[in-house]
Request: fold
Amino acid sequence: MHKHAALMGIALGLCVAAPGHAQTYPAKPVRVIAPFPAGGGTDLFARSLAQKLSGMWGQQVVVDNRAGAGGMIGSEMVARAAPDGYTLLITSSSTISISPQLMRAPPYDPLRDFAPVALIATAPNVLVVHPSVPARSVKELIALAKARPGAINFGSNGSGTLSHLTVELFKLQAGIDMMHIPYKGGPPAVIDLVAGQVSALFTALPTVYPQVRSGKLRLIAVTGERRLAALPDIPTVAETIPGFESVQWWGMFAPAGTAAALVDRLNRDIVKILGEAEIKARFAGEGAEGAGDTPAEFAAYVKSDYERWGKVVKAVGIRSE
Reply:
């Protein structure tokens, strides 16, 4: 009987241990891995949040840039880390939704090896065309592509990138054929688009906004589910092709197996920071909107985004190796 009571006491002690850990966390410095080089969007979001969390927690939160293999090296480090909240990942959708699906043997399973903590920011792509293209709307561009199959050259930021997969999703859902021309990143694709070497491009708004403002490129649509507050007159692709969506997002993940109470605590603190006017303004400067949701909502979002791009990768047969 005494033995049974002792076991009950241990069990009760274990029940309160997890919430207790969430309250005393962090007891030492926290490392946030950003799997891309310093200076990019992922790095900016990671540093903005790390700085705020350091102040909130009274504990050092260090950003560790571990670039390589398109963000997969740093992401794998977090997938293999101890699930104690002291090694976290802030990454973009490419390392979760896209890159693992392009490989025959990815180094981690994006849906099984991480605990989604919070959606940090989202940024839709935009559809821009060279002014010589006789199309001022998505509907007119589709009509032009149907009248001249394969004649429209679509640039992208590189084979297997979100920019490329957005082209393929557009072709699939609109039932059209266009020539895809991959570049090594957004800037060279924009240079050739301005020069008229390619007709159209899906890319991030900040990459092309100066050329749109100066009239060198025509902005036709945004790829999010709703219009951008900054560009209320520019329609979404979905207004012509229902259900079309292509959004780059950034989120925080912990290793799989991290205690739910700790994930909830991290989520609450991140969401609080995302509500600050200073953070909203900083993200808007990058062409992104702060997000913030529950861990369960973020997990569902990740799964649906992964499945969306998985269908495109399968339909087109893209492989990075």
